[in-house]
Write a structure and sequence with these properties.
Order of helices and strands of chain A: EEEEEEHEHEHEHEEHEHEHEHHEHHHEEE
Radius of gyration of chain B: 19 Å
Largest sheet of chain A: 8 strands, mixed
Structural class of chain B: alpha/beta
Order of helices and strands of chain B: HEHEHEHEHEHEEHEHHEHH
CATH architecture of the largest domain in chain A: Alpha-Beta Barrel
Number of strands of chain A: 18
Largest sheet of chain B: 5 strands, parallel
Number of strands of chain B: 9
Number of helices of chain A: 12
Strand content of chain A: 15-25%
Structural class of chain A: alpha/beta
CATH topology of the largest domain in chain A: TIM Barrel
Distance between the termini of chain B: 26 Å
Number of helices of chain B: 11
Helix content of chain A: 25-40%
Largest interface: A-B, 22 and 23 residues
Oligomer: heterodimer
CATH superfamily of the largest domain in chain A: Metal-dependent hydrolases
Strand content of chain B: 5-15%
Shape of chain B: globular
Distance between the termini of chain A: 22 Å
Chain lengths: ~425, ~325
């Protein structure tokens, strides 16, 4: 089993309030000692790597990843997504249920777990559909799905329209302690819309989605969380009114949490420019004021989690007129680098960023990882927070190339990713062969 | 002057001198169309393809006639019921047509930005004949030509654009062009038919015709699509006509010499009363004539620009 020692590292682990220079001792794939004095406990002759002051953080835990397997393997497979994840410092990810067929049955949870075990180089956990076929009409077998290994109940990209259905699903989920994690967009109010409603959309002649479409759906779900006592997670929010609603629901003591995609923290609607479909997202990219307000909501902890909202789309769904294209952008490979923009801009402290990318999501969904405490699996990322680089399309390892960061410049890069102590990615060597 | 564009995708990319150049050329083209022998050799040997993903009788006929009067070989592709319906993408269609080596493509498409997307994939000149609710540049140019020939100028005129601005590419192109030429633009419509942020689009916003038409030099009516008349955006045709239809009483509030315009096809009794459409202030038929002239001017100018500077045309 893996035994190695990483020395001369700046260790940032918000799960134990640690930010200190020291060493990480890994024995049998687990953290055996960590911190300023850890090197002293290392056995003689252990494989040692001097990190020269690079930062070690718990591996990122991505709560919202769309994958094309089964049904859309030309867009992404579990294996290819895991390789993209490794490049981004992501060591655990939750795979959304909106595959084809939908993950609404135990056999599909089993399928994902088997593929994850055999082919993925990071940990992949399935989310199960909240309703059969994501149609919002009929509950799935929560108990059986959770027993089989599903870690989240989600309706994927779809918001359940029927409020009574949503109430019953949340009531039933409460008894299992499962987290119901949902996209929040009122399908009537957003009908036909393809980007943020406002002046910019009006000039482009594109139908808009008002912010109220998100706020109304979120406020409904938060009321239902209060009514049912269910654990509820808003998957991807985009406007400060939503953050305010989450803040007051939390203050009232309800079991609610919230996430945001990295895109909505680093991009805004003007990035769409002349109809660039890689910036067509759901929720839509909002204004710069919204982006900044949401970064502040991440900094103060109102928004718990940052996800990649990785959504691979091929040319058949993206190389189209804007209004006809699919939503979504890939994001696993750039998750950490993009997030570091918020650190460099001074909007979010580094420790809080790592917490939102790793510790909090692991905590909310009860996953191993998200910590470098002694005894935990040695899932970690080694990063240089200032490393300058540019994302070239040719370097993307996802099967789909629809990155909103193509040709973007970054400061900060993942240099190495470890899962259970073993390197699954080294920037100087690339990915292990396949 | 050397026209600095290889395509005409929107009014937004045009400067005031570009617009004046096109209007001047169009004035000359009007004379050609009024001759007995209407055929010129300006585009002889050139191939023009009209690619209409949305069906249109009038605009397509106007472009076809414009091309023929310039001597081009014109082909109409009725894409609305062809391979595109069978799943071929816009890009594939563009590449297929490109391989046939046309010189100019006239494209109408139901999605905003689609014509610009297509223009990236072909080597020939592309003219936007309407893309979704985005732009319809030749319509705005023909409107401007009609106004200029009747009023002698565009600057400082009060132009009221009335009706379904929300879904109208004609309105967007006109707002941009008229602002560029120094006109004062008003929009008059119920709020359900106005886009978000309209007040920041360089217009004065009115919700009552009685206010918006006062002292107007030009009243430009927009077509209301039938599917929007019955409850989704306005409650009924009769209510719409009562409040937003142009009739004699409302027109009386505009200047006595105000022009009445409509891009066609008209819904008589919905957005405009029949007697007004056919009345002495109406220049609606003149707009149709100016349409052919403007399209001749646009195609001739784009071809001349490419002949002067062929490098920009593409690599192969």
């Amino acid at each position: 089993m893996t035994r190695r020692l990483l020395t001369n590292a700046r260790i940032i682990d918000p799960s134990q309030g640690m930010d200190e220079t020291g060493a990480v001792l890994i024995i049998d794939g687990q953290i055996a000692a960590i911190g300023a004095n850890a090197a002293a406990t290392a056995p003689e002759g252990i494989d040692t790597e001097d990190l020269g002051g690079l930062i070690v953080v718990p591996g990122l835990v991505d709560t919202c990843v769309h994958i094309g397997e089964p049904g859309g393997e030309h867009r992404e497979t579990i294996a290819s997504a895991s390789r993209a994840a490794a490049r981004g410092g992501v060591t655990s990810l939750i795979m959304m249920p909106d595959t084809d067929p939908v993950i609404d049955d135990v056999s599909l949870v089993d399928f994902v777990q088997r593929a994850a075990r055999d082919e993925a180089i990071v940990s992949v956990y399935p989310a199960a559909a909240l309703t059969k076929g994501l149609r919002g009409e009929q509950m799935t077998e929560f108990g059986l799905l959770l027993d089989a290994g599903a870690v989240m109940l989600s309706n994927g990209r779809e918001t359940v329209k029927d409020t009574l259905m949503m109430r019953r699903a949340m009531t039933y989920a409460r008894d299992f302690g499962a987290v119901v994690a949902c996209a929040t967009q009122d399908s009537y109010l957003s009908s036909g819309g393809v980007m943020n409603e406002g002046l910019f959309a009006s000039w482009l002649g594109l139908p808009g989605i008002p912010r109220e479409a998100e706020i109304i759906a979120l406020e409904r779900d938060l009321r239902l969380a209060a009514l049912t006592g269910a654990r509820y997670h808003a998957l991807k929010l985009s406007v400060p009114e939503s953050a305010a609603a989450v803040r007051s629901s939390k203050a009232a003591g309800h079991a609610v949490t919230a996430g945001i995609s990295i895109n909505h923290l680093t991009l805004n609607e003007t990035d769409i420019g002349e109809y660039r479909t890689f910036f067509r997202l759901s929720p839509p990219l909002r204004s710069e004021d919204d982006r900044r307000a949401m970064a502040a909501a991440v900094a103060d902890g109102t928004i718990d989690v940052i996800s990649s909202s990785h959504d691979p789309q091929d040319v058949d769904t993206k190389r189209l007129p804007f209004a006809d294209a699919a939503n979504g952008a890939i994001g696993l490979e750039t998750l950490l680098a993009a997030a570091l923009r918020l650190y460099h801009s001074g909007d979010v402290p580094l420790a809080r960023l790592i917490e939102a990318l790793s510790c909090r999501p692991a905590e909310i969904f009860g996953l191993p990882g998200g910590t470098l405490k002694v005894g935990a699996a040695a899932d970690l990322a080694i990063i240089d927070p200032d490393y300058p680089w540019m994302l070239s399309k040719d370097d993307i390892v996802s099967r789909s190339k629809n990155s909103a960061f193509e040709d973007a410049r970054f400061s900060g890069k993942v240099l190495q990713t470890l899962v259970a102590g073993a390197s699954v990615y080294r920037a100087d060597e690339g990915l292990p062969g396949r | 002057m050397v026209f600095p564009h290889r395509h005409l995708l929107g009014i937004k990319e045009l400067s005031e001198p570009d617009i004046l150049h096109l209007l001047d050329r169009a004035d000359a083209a009007v004379q050609i169309s009024r001759r007995e022998d209407k055929k010129t050799a300006t585009l002889r040997g050139r191939t023009q393809i009209n690619l209409f993903f949305e069906s249109s009788t009038r605009t397509q006929a106007s472009f076809e006639l414009a091309g023929k009067r310039l001597g081009a070989d014109v082909m109409n592709m009725a894409v609305a019921n062809s391979s595109v319906k069978k799943g071929e993408t816009l890009i594939d269609t563009a590449m297929t047509l490109n391989a046939m080596r046309p010189d100019i493509l006239i494209v109408r498409h139901g999605s905003a930005g689609a014509v610009a997307l297509l223009a990236q994939k072909v080597e020939c000149a592309v003219v936007n004949a309407g893309d979704g609710a985005h732009e319809h540049p030749t319509q705005a140019l023909l409107d401007a030509l009609t106004i200029r020939r009747n009023k002698g100028r565009l600057g400082r005129l009060i132009v009221a654009i009335c009706g379904d601005v929300l879904h109208s590419r004609v309105a967007r192109s006109n707002i941009i062009l008229l602002n560029a030429m120094g006109a004062r633009v008003r929009v008059v419509a119920p709020s359900t038919l106005l886009p978000a942020g309209i007040a920041q689009m360089g217009v004065e916003v009115f919700h009552r015709m009685e206010d918006g038409l006062r002292d107007a030099d030009v009243v430009m009516m927009l077509r209301l699509q039938r599917e929007r008349m019955e409850g989704a955006f306005v409650p009924s045709v009769r209510e719409y006509f009562r409040h937003y239809g142009l009739d004699a009483a409302k027109l009386a509030l505009a200047r006595p010499d105000a022009l009445v315009m409509h891009p066609g096809p008209m819904n008589r009794g919905v957005e405009i009363a029949s007697d007004i459409a056919d009345g002495p202030q109406s220049v609606i038929e003149s707009q149709v004539e100016m349409g052919v002239a403007v399209r001749m001017a646009v195609m001739e100018t784009l071809m001349a620009a490419r002949d002067t500077d062929p490098v920009a045309e593409g690599t192969s």
